[in-house]
Amino acid sequence: MNIHKVEKSNTVLTLVIIGNLDTNNSRLAQACIDDILTKDTHNEIEVDFSKVKFLDSSGIGALVYLYKRLIERERNMYIKNATGQPLEFMKLLRINQAISIS
């Protein structure tokens, strides 16, 4: 799994996740999440799921961790381009009630 950071503007940072966001890869994502929380100043974080085919509970945990920490810092996060199993899993767990999914 890879996470590419794409700066859309001074206020919006897009994280493009490439690969599965599962138990093994959630640990790898943690370094990127910590980097965003401590070094990044964008007000909005957009997580692009267009290249994610599988999401498990560890991946959900990583997303929720990022979301909570951003909210504490008065920053926003949303998920875009989620389809298939990742989208269905997020809906099943009602993640869309807390994090905007488009």
From TrEMBL:
Citing just one GO molecular function, the answer is:
anti-sigma factor antagonist activity
**All copies of domain STAS, residue ranges:** 2-102
Q: Where would you find the membrane-spanning parts of this chain?
A: none
* InterPro entries listed in its UniProt record: STAS_dom, STAS_dom_sf
PROSITE patterns for this protein: STAS (PS50801)
Pfam families associated with the record: STAS
Entry protein name:
OmpA
User: Where does this protein come from, organism-wise?
Assistant: Candidatus Photodesmus katoptron Akat1
